[in-house]
Amino acid sequence: MTFGRTPVAWPADPRSRAALEQYAAGADRFGGPNADLRGADLTGLDLRGADLTGAILPGVRLVRANLDRARLSGADLTAANLSGAELARVEADRIQAAGAALRAAHLFAADLVHAVLAGADLRDALLNSANLIGADLRGADLRGASLRHCVLGTVAAPLRLAGARLDGAVLTGAVGCVTGAASVGGEVVSGPGLSAWLRARGCVMLGS
């Protein structure tokens, strides 16, 4: 896949636009900690290794963008569209991404510690080896997602799954703790029942 350097639409904030223009002109990588990128369409943009720590990105389009190894800690991605984006090994701890679209996104070995992904669309996403300690996936759609060998959570900071849809999710080798009720095949499963369902799919459940 070929990734570009020029946004489809520029952000409204002048400083953030200037930083993106500098990158588009040939800078090694985009450095925009705390950048305000609201209003931008970054579809297909090559942002590998970008520093977007604390960036303001609600509603921003990052469809099929390359964010491999990018730094997004503490960024606001509420309702952003990252469908099909490359997010392998991204540092995304403490992101606010409620309602974000991450369908078929590649999140291999992503750091999602205490990430807020409530209501996110993660259908067919690849989350293999991701760190989900303390992540909030309440109401998230994980149908068909792959979570092989990911860290689900700890006893002190379990993965929050209340209302999440897990139909067809692949969980072989996942390890950790979860809390809340999940929807599986139209049925709500929680507590020991959810733990048993996860174990039957190759998870190692701790503290239960």
Short description:
With 208 residues, this protein is mostly loops.
Describe the structure.
- Strand 5 (182-184) and strand 6 form a beta hairpin.
- The chain contains 2 helices and 7 strands, in the order H-E-E-E-E-E-E-H-E.
- It is elongated.
- The protein is largely without helices or strands.
- The mean pLDDT is 96.
Largest sheet: 3 strands, mixed
Tell me how many strands there are.
Answer: 7
Helical amount among residues, as a percent range?
under 10%
Rough outline: elongated
Strand arrangement within the widest β-sheet reads 2-5-6
Low-confidence blocks of residues: none
Number of helices: 2
Strand content: 5-15%
Instruction: Please give the alpha-carbon distance between the first and last residues.
Output: 43 Å
What is the arithmetic mean of pLDDT?
A: 96
Helix/strand layout:
Layout: H1 14-24, E1 159-160, E2 164-165, E3 175-176, E4 178-179, E5 182-184, E6 187-189, H2 191-199, E7 204-205
Parallel strand pairs: 1-4, 2-5, 3-7
Antiparallel strand pairs: 5-6
Key features of this structure:
three-stranded mixed sheet, single chain, little secondary structure, 7 strands, about 210 residues, elongated
